[in-house]
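Researcher: Re-running this chain for the archive, since the previous output was lost when a drive failed. Same request as before.
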Amino acid sequence: MSSWFSSASALPFPAEPVVRVADPATSSVSTSTPLLINSLAASPDDFKWRLNVPSATEAFTFYLTLSNGTYVLAQMVYSAVGLSPSVQMTLRMYNSDKTKYASTLSPSMSNFKVSDDKLSVTCDQMQFTYNPATRGYTLVFDLGVNVAAVNVLLTPTDAPFKVNDGRLPFGAKDSDGFVDAAFYPRHEATGTISFEGKTTNVVGWGSSSHVIQYKPQVPAKWNFVNLQNEKDAIMLYEFDLPKGGKCTSIGTVVRNGRTIAVTTTNRSVHVQKQNDSKFSGYDVPTQLFVVLNGKTQDLGEDVHVEISIVQKNLLDAIDVLAQLPYLLKVFIQTFITAPYVYQWYEDVSAKVTIGKDSFTVDGKAFIECAFLLKE
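Model: Regenerated structure tokens:
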């Protein structure tokens, strides 16, 4: 769930076939540092553009799982990292027949137009417009029907949330850096997508987030999992600090369109890894074991989720610095040795236990692992 700018590489990974091994016992998993949840309430104010945090990135990201098998990621990032503010927009479209489109654009700041209420924005080929009646969005990313285009209405099935004041600190004080995050864990999506001259009516599901990262170079790595199906959703949003520092993690469980639990005692375990020596040099996971633990919002029942994933469908391996503007690239390289992002899209079955009730959530999961520092 990184909000760094990016461009893709198509190098093959993994080099060796992956054979599933036994996942660790849940009792042996070292989970994230738990957060005491005093409030989950989020308002439209939490989804307003701030544009006033120095040395920070501010990102709106939309993730769409569509019924025709297409997965869409659309992101707009405002960056105050570097000598002057900049904007970048990314559209990634992955189709069930393995065709795909990925583009990152760097428009002029003069074309970046935020609405008076700071809830909507227009910038060249991308715009998203807030609907106060539904608290949802109309998302448009138009590169032309002969290339790729998305025009969808996103309607939330439940209220958005943030954990307490939304701020997840990297250290003991704000000057150490932080993430300020608010989430819509579940949208219904209707509209059209276009790809290489063909326009298709689509329905689907998705999620979105508004995230500010102050000193985004501080974490060593990120893990993100977004599982969606017709009724349910499970999300993991997690970062690790360098040199064995703390892990902070937020998870959500959506059942029949309603957010029944937000969890903070979680972990994404890299069960198997292979070194991607020809591209990034990082030890990249090829099998994940995701664990979420928490309580339901209504009755306080125990919630436990397990997801075992062998990652076979790599969408992209991304060199974050590859297409950054020169001055911003130089600034980032001062702090980050080699940022890379890996993305997968997998068929997943999650085992969920709520109180005495157990069930599975089957669906498509978008998985992202980002590496910022070689330790």
